[in-house]
Design a protein that fits this description.
Layout lengths: L6 E4 L3 E5 L5 E6 L2 E4 L4 E4 L3 H18 L6 E4 L4 E5 L2 E2 L2 E8 L2 H7 L6 E11 L8 E2 L1 H6 L5 H23 L3 E15 L2 E7 L7 E5 L9 H4 L5 H12 L15
Antiparallel strand pairs: 1-2, 2-3, 3-7, 4-5, 6-7, 8-12, 9-10, 9-12, 10-11, 12-13, 12-14
Helix pairs in contact: 1-6
This protein binds uridine-5'-diphosphate.
The site of uridine-5'-diphosphate has 14 residues, from strand 9, helix 2, strand 12 and strand 14.
């Protein structure tokens, strides 16, 4: 698996390499976990394999309902072929239930259902700790156009509706999640598609019966059994059979 291909970008949990043809990239899922703006770090063996598979499954399902995204196909346990996009420097968060930063910021009790689904935007800048921004900031600083914001919000709500149902069917509550978008250019025009990943690293997923956390909060809050919980999400989605060695921690 050691090729001399060019590394385009290395982030906290993923690496992007140049793809086999123009307009494509290879997205490699690492086992590295970070939280609190990378102040907390660990290597969770097998995480990259599980997230690669879960993200593939979710992106494929979303594509099948017409939510266009960058996923092309999975290449191996840790890599997927994706469309190259120009990343919009925003994290789009959708929340159904109060948890994490909104609970702290607004003094809400974790687990309290929100009056309706709420969309928030954060400016992607590690040095600044990804500050929350409004549509005013986004258009003033040209991070995205008004039409693009509308498209991202409409897509975010569709993703929320679809994934809430998908997870609910397997006994999991979708509390909140973060997605990212990118532009693809076609001649003089560009359109916005879903990019990055959707996995237990980027969603809050609670067992519907017990409210047990099955997501990255297990790492953030030192709850233990991180990989076991991610594996449980994959198992419930019915996609564990394609990665039998992960549970034994035998994948490198
Ligand atoms: N999230 C993420 N990456 C980030 C920040 C947040 O994937 O850099 C996800 C997080 O896992 C949760 C949702 O976005 O599902 C909302 O996160 P919140 O703002 O509550 O972040 P916290 O401060 O708790 O990490």
């Amino acid at each position: 698996m050691t090729t001399r291909r060019k590394k385009i970008y290395e982030g906290k949990a993923k690496i992007l390499y140049e793809g086999p043809e123009p307009g494509t990239l290879i997205q490699y899922f690492k086992d590295d976990a970070t939280a609190f703006n990378a102040q907390k770090k660990a290597v969770l063996e097998g995480k990259g394999v599980i997230n690669n598979r879960i993200s593939e499954y979710i992106m494929t399902r979303l594509n099948s309902i017409g939510v266009q995204n960058h996923f092309i196909r999975r290449l191996n346990l840790r890599e997927q072929l994706i469309k190259e996009v120009e990343i919009v420097p925003l994290e789009v968060v959708v929340r159904n239930i109060a948890a994490g930063s909104i609970a702290t910021r607004l003094g809400l009790t974790e687990g309290q259902p929100l009056p309706r689904s709420i969309i928030e935007f954060y400016y992607k800048d590690d040095k600044l700790g990804d500050p929350m921004v409004s549509e005013e900031h986004i258009t003033a600083f040209n991070w995205a156009a008004t039409q693009e914001i509308d498209d991202m919000m409409a897509t975010a709500l569709r993703v929320n509706d679809y994934l809430s149902g998908l997870f609910s069917a397997v006994g999991i509550t979708l509390v909140d999640f973060k997605i990212e978008f990118g532009r693809v250019y076609e001649g003089d025009f560009s359109r916005i598609i879903l990019a990055d990943e959707i996995s237990p690293d980027s969603c809050r997923l609670w067992d519907a019966a017990t409210n047990e956390k099955l997501d990255k909060d297990r790492f953030r809050r030192d709850l233990g059994n991180v990989i076991e919980s991610y594996t449980e999400v994959a198992r419930r989605l019915g996609i564990m059979k394609e990665m039998p060695t992960v549970i034994q921690g035998g994948v490198h």
